[in-house]
Amino acid sequence: MTQPLDTTPEVAAALQAGDPVVSLESTIITHGMPYPQNLEMARRVEAEIRAGGAVPATIAVVAGRIKIGLDQTTMEQLARMPQAQVMKLSRADLAVCAATGRTGATTVAATMICAHLAGIGVFATGGIGGVHRGAESSFDISADLNELAQTPVTVICAGAKAILDLSKTLEVLETLGVPVIAFGQDQLPAFWSRESGLTAPLRMDDPVEIARAAAVRAALNIPGGQLVANPIPPEAEIPRAEIAPIVDQALADAARHRIGAKAVTPYLLQRIFELTEGRSLSANIELVLNNARLAARIAAEAARLRAAS
């Protein structure tokens, strides 16, 4: 059976030529914010990647076809769709969505799978999933972590989402053999905040180093990708001392209302948005744009390394 994969002419031409390409997830469009802000955001992120000299490839499943890159019409249709009509896809349900002809938005794990299938090695997102607080009893751990351990894509994020147990997330990534690289600083960033209080296992200050590390990892036949934690710009951050009690309150509210399973993260993000009077969303937008800029630089360096080899 052939892969249900459609690549836009722009992305296909860039891949054929060996030009830099950056993949993007689509849950930010369907589950991140309402229309038309979601569409505006998606277009801004793609524009940042183009400004950095790379081609953006937003990934989604539309009517059972995996789309590597979205044209403007398809992106707007996706942005307008009610959430109830769009599956939120990870490794477990990506194939089911394609097989049943449904439409779905890709999370970090599913985007990595599709990007690798298409031959794209760099992916920009906001924050990855990880180990939820209380996971020692709930066993709630994101599939993103295992995906990083097995799929060779460099993922640029602002750290794991601060609603998670960051120290346990770091421990699981270490156990899985995933390189966790802080860009330009020693501390692991924490999504809305530049600092988490945790020292990052690795630090790199130059995109060419990051691109070279991915190439050497591949040459050594070490499976999996690498995680680049890129701190949010200083002017956009909500400092850790300020956001920590807000996250604690949101978690307490979720427990009081018995919010669980897949409903936890959307509830917490919405509650934090309310408690910060919208600052968390503004910060989220800025960190995604910042990650897109760094991803374009890394993809450009990776393309130069391929051309020189």
UniProtKB/TrEMBL annotation:
Q: What is its EC number?
A: 4.2.1.70
Q: One GO CC annotation, please?
A: cytoplasm
Q: Tell me which residues bind substrate.
A: K88, V108, S142, A143, D144
S-adenosyl-L-methionine found in the keyword field? no
Q: Name one GO biological process term.
A: nucleobase catabolic process
Which InterPro entries does this one have? Indigdn_synthA-like (IPR022830), PsuG (IPR007342)
Q: What is the enzyme's main class? A: lyase
**List of residues binding Mn(2+):** D140
What the record notes about the co-factor is: Binds 1 Mn(2+) ion per subunit.
GO MF annotations for this entry? Answer: hydrolase activity, acting on glycosyl bonds; metal ion binding; pseudouridylate synthase activity
Record-linked PANTHER family: CARBOHYDRATE KINASE PFKB DOMAIN-CONTAINING PROTEIN, ZGC:136858
Q: Which family does it belong to?
A: Belongs to the pseudouridine-5'-phosphate glycosidase family.
UniProt subunit comment? Homotrimer.
Q: What name does UniProt use for this protein?
A: Pseudouridine-5'-phosphate glycosidase
State the organism named in the record.
Paracoccus isoporae
